[in-house]
UniProtKB/TrEMBL annotation:
<dbReference type="InterPro" id="IPR052709">
    <property type="entry name" value="Transposase-MT_Hybrid"/>
</dbReference>
<protein>
    <recommendedName>
        <fullName>Histone-lysine N-methyltransferase SETMAR</fullName>
    </recommendedName>
</protein>
<dbReference type="InterPro" id="IPR036397">
    <property type="entry name" value="RNaseH_sf"/>
</dbReference>
<dbReference type="GO" id="GO:0003676">
    <property type="term" value="F:nucleic acid binding"/>
</dbReference>
């Protein structure tokens, strides 16, 4: 049993990896911090690194993943939420939790608003998020005064 008992890595043939340096990791992190929506192509252009190196830096070194934003129909302020709860409590008292006949005397109406906007796809809302992080949220309502007759 005469062999090499050294447990450290020896020199290996081939080109050394110079892309996973601390400077390159910081460079990619700076770009992602500036713009969480940045794409691989933009990172390649800004950092002059290959897409494979960027992939390793983003996923293995920084532990990031790109997630689509979770769209929500609207965003209410805390005052608006409180007003809605207060109104519901008043209605529950007024109509005795639904047992009063006065409930049948409520008249309701409906309005339809049709907004014109350029649809943003879910892909446009993707952001780099830390591993285990929650996806960002985005209010879906985008209004415009433009009208079109077709």
């Amino acid at each position: 049993m005469h062999g090499n008992c050294i447990l450290e890595d020896g020199p290996r043939p081939g080109r050394p990896s110079i892309t996973h340096t601390v400077e390159n990791v910081e460079l990619v992190l700076d770009e992602v911090t500036k713009d969480p929506h940045v794409t691989y192509a933009q990172l390649e252009h800004e950092t002059k690194l290959s897409s494979g190196s960027i992939n390793v830096i983003l996923h293995k070194e920084l532990g990031l993943r790109k997630l689509c934003a979770r769209w929500i129909p609207h965003s209410l302020s805390s005052d608006q939420k409180k007003c809605r709860v207060d109104f519901c409590k008043i209605m529950l008292k007024r109509f005795v939790n639904g047992t009063s006949r006065a409930v049948s005397e409520i008249l309701t109406g409906d309005e339809t608003w049709i907004y014109h906007y350029d649809l943003e796809t879910k892909r446009h809302s993707k952001e780099w998020v830390e591993e285990g992080g929650l996806p960002p949220t985005k209010v879906r309502r985008i209004r415009s005064v433009e009208s079109r007759c077709g």
